[in-house]
Amino acid sequence: MPKSKEQCEKMRDDMRSKILKESSMYFARNGFGDTKISDLAKHIGIGQGTIYLYFKSKEELFEEIRSAADNKDEIKKIKLLNKMPIPAKVKIDKISEEVCKHLADDEEYCVRITLQTQLLLEREDMYADDLYKELAKTIKQGQKEGSIIKKDALYLADLYWGNVYLYALKRLFAKNIGALEKETLNRLLEK
Questions:
Q1: Rounded to whole angstroms, what are the CA distances from 142 to 86, 95, 135, 139, 150?
Q2: Which residue in 37, 59, 111, 135 could disulfide with 157, CB within 3.0 to 4.6 Å?
Q3: Counting Cβ atoms within 10 Å, is residue 73 exposed (0-12), middle (13-18) or buried (19+)?
Q4: CA angle at residue 15 from 10 to 16, to 5 degrees?
Q5: 41 in Cβ contact with 50 (< 8 Å)
Q6: Sign of CA pseudo-dihedral 43, 10, 105, 62
């Protein structure tokens, strides 16, 4: 029996979503340079030509994954927290709580964190990223308040996000990983 136009569109959308989801995981594991379309197609379980029906090139596929993996939501939340008249220790606790919740429950979040970090590592000045700068603002506030250890704020932001990245990798590629606790992240910064 022939499929309706709606059924065909749904199948096409489903395949595109599958390619994006599986490719995200593959790029997170292998990086852009070590990913070949032929290997990616095998990983997904489709023909190589199927990928090219949806994306002109590996670069176009990666660019779409990259734009979906942006950290705008995290930056926006931290910026909002930084505007609130509450102690930095409370802000950091809220950030850690949300990060740990997402790391435990959301595989796509782990993929985004992994890809974001890989992309940051490719930049000449990864510390110019708003995610680092905004957390550094919170850290500086806490240092003034006396609740955060006295070290370079960008160094501490790097230590914090580096641990988040490492845990995201573990959640994606290792078995039987326990939950990261917000207290563990908080202890990286607090006195």
A1: 10, 14, 11, 5, 9
A2: 135
A3: exposed
A4: 100
A5: yes
A6: positive
Tokens representing residue 100 in the block: 């740990």
pLDDT (0 to 100) of residue 111: 86
Q: How does pLDDT run across 2-19, given as a tens digit for each residue? A: 678 888 788 888 888 888
Q: What is the 3-state secondary structure (H, E, C) of the chain?
A: CCCCHHHHHHHHHHHHHHHHHHHHHHHHHHCCCCCCHHHHHHHHCCCHHHHHHHCCCHHHHHHHHHHHCCCHHHHHHHHHHHHCCCCHHHHHHHHHHHHHHHHHHCHHHHHHHHHHHHHHHHCCCHHHCHHHHHHHHHHHHHHHHCCECCCCHHHHHHHHHHHHHHHHHHHHHCCCCCCCCHHHHHHCCEC
- The whole model's pTM is what? 0.79
Residues 80-100, mean pLDDT to the nearest whole number: 93
